[in-house]
Predict the 3D structure of the following.
Amino acid sequence: MVLFFKIFVWFCFAGLLLYTYLYGKNEAKMEEKVFLFRKIWYLLYMLGAVLYWTKYPDSIFTDWKNYIIVFVIFLSVDAFIFLNMYLRKAGNYELDRFTKTVTANETLIKDNLSMAKNMLHILNKEGINGYYGSREGYLLGLKEVLQSYAQKEDMNIQVWPFTDPTEKEQALMAYTNSGAIRSKLDRLETVYNTELKYALHPIYLFGDELYVLKIAGSREISEMDCLLFVVMIHIYDFAVPEGQEWNEIGGE
């Protein structure tokens, strides 16, 4: 039993080292999963306590201080490693993690405001020309509008048909995990890749034909980016010549 607990303690320590290493490599992704890690951490405490109690049932009454001491150690590790909780000013308790969250939220608000301003600039200064005449003309004008906005955001966007199997295979040819991506797009779910900084957003054009917006940039592509591109598409649709319907495009 003593050997087991020695192994258990070293296992916990190795896990903390691994967490610290991964946190240093990708802080944002680890922050997203910090609550899961905290749950696992306290489950490890419960596992150790239950195993010790099973071996020594009377210890819960005779050695209850040991349970408390170990629990305080687990609380300290949780506070200082998972929550980054430490004193930044004497006598003033602050959570650095919440400070980072506030800063991140301020940055997000500024970025979203900048994106909205760029979209308004496209609408007010450059305008949107609704020249269709054919399906190809519609897509050509749409790509020009989307790309003009994408350039202002240091991004690139492509519009790919995604209705039949051949189109789906061509659209996802460059991706190694094309099967998983295709399943999500078929369910009309947006695919985000934070490491490669791209997003794939499904959208219906011409009524019932599925297309995919391939959005890539110098930063992570967010849900807000995808929504603004969708808004631009709907605004572009409002510019359709009066009396022209979807089924008239392409001579259908």
Observations:
- The mean pLDDT is 78.
- The chain is about 60% helix and 15% strand.
- The beta strands are 85-89, 92-95, 155-161, 191-193, 198-205, 209-217.
- The CA atoms of residues 36 and 208 lie 40 Å apart.
